[in-house]
Amino acid sequence: MTDGPARPVEPVLRPEERRHVWLAGALPAVVVVAILAAFAVAGRGTLTDVVVGTVLYGGILGVTAAVLAYERATSAHCPRCDATGPRRRASCDACGYDLAERPLHRCPTRHPVYLEDGVCECGQRLSPVVRERGLGRELTRILWAGAWVAALLLGVWASLRFLY
To answer: How far apart are CA 5 and CA 119, in angstroms?
Structure first.
């Protein structure tokens, strides 16, 4: 164990949490198979359509659901001691870390983050990491990405229309 500020520990999921993550990842693929199989049985698709659709859509939905389930499971873990408790608690019962704010500190040379103030291994003073709150920045990025995708699709459509 090193002296100085503590670093975050990687959360270890319990078997029950791991099962929830796997189930959240597999369930969308099962639902997509059921929906596409109904279309294939009705004569509107082939087995290839079912397999490709399941891999594409079931895979995308499954990975998204698994990531969300993992994030939800790890949100109950303390980043300092990995103790598990109820989600919205103010501080960790085992080590006293402030779970409401989850303060992080980083040195100016961008070494890994620390959980408390102090001095980095390189000898520089750690400064607090300022976290932006709210959804404004994320919504702005999503809208800009959507605008670029719309412009790209419009350009492809216009070029195809011009060519044919």
So the answer is: 7
CB atoms inside a 10 Å sphere around CB 107: 19
pLDDT tens figures, 50-71? 999 999 999 999 999 999 999 8
Dihedral sign for Cα atoms in the order 108, 114, 118, 119: negative
Instruction: Kindly report the pTM of this predicted structure.
Output: 0.68
Residue with tokens 């408390």, as numbered in its chain: 116
Percent of residues in the chain assigned helix, strand, coil, to nearest 5: 50, 5, 45
Asked if 84 contacts 50 with a C-beta cutoff of 8 angstroms, the reply is no
Sign, CA dihedral 118-124-125-131, equals negative
Cα distance between residue 129 and residue 144, in whole Å: 26
Structure tokens at 94: 């085992």
- Classified as helix, coil or strand, 55 is helix
Distance CA 51, CA 151 (A): 31
